[in-house]
Design goal:
Arc Repressor Mutant, subunit A; mainly alpha
Length: about 180
């Protein structure tokens, strides 16, 4: 980065919001490494247009991440990646919350790109319908439809996958 104070605001912003942005990127991408790559790509694109960003850059950066994630899903659908050995499933033990997370991540991969982006924005990022529509560049009704359909797929998938799974006790669930 060039010095001279041009990017001091960006460095401060990334220091404050970087972890939250990385968590969102990991949910949008098919794994931690892909999430890190997605966030890095979004920050690079933000740097190219940094002189045009007025106010808070978070919305601009999140929109870049959503759009790049959708582009990635589309390209993987056309050209699936073959990377080697399949990932081994986690063994159920006292780390049942890790198992739940793996099931949830697998269920998110079943959603269409638009549904996944809408569900992540609405329920992980806690954005309103209007904020989600602005971030995704679509109408509020499209956000409602994508979120509803996505949640329906998740409910059906998670109900089917977890019928045989052991239920955590109230203590394990933190209740």
């Amino acid at each position: 980065m060039p010095n001279g104070g041009r990017y001091d605001d960006l460095a401060t912003f990334l220091e404050a919001r970087g972890d939250a942005l990385l968590r969102t990127a990991v949910l949008l991408a098919p794994g931690r490494e892909a999430g890190e790559d997605l966030l890095q790509d979004a920050v690079e694109r933000l740097l190219r247009k940094w002189h045009k960003v007025d106010g808070d850059p978070e919305g601009y950066l999140r929109r870049i991440m959503y759009n790049r994630a959708v582009d990635g899903w589309r390209s993987r659908a056309r050209r699936p990646e073959v990377l080697g050995l399949p990932v081994q499933a986690a063994v159920a033990d006292h780390t049942s919350w890790l198992d739940v997370r793996l099931v949830l991540m697998a269920a998110l991969e079943l959603l269409t790109p638009r549904q996944r982006a809408a569900v992540v924005a609405r329920h992980w990022e806690q954005l309103s319908e209007a904020e989600t529509a602005a971030a995704l560049g679509c109408s509020v009704s499209a956000v409602k439809a994508a979120t509803g359909r996505g949640l329906g797929v998740l409910r059906a998938t998670l109900t089917r996958d977890t019928e045989c799974a052991p239920k955590p006790s109230r203590e394990e669930a933190g209740l």
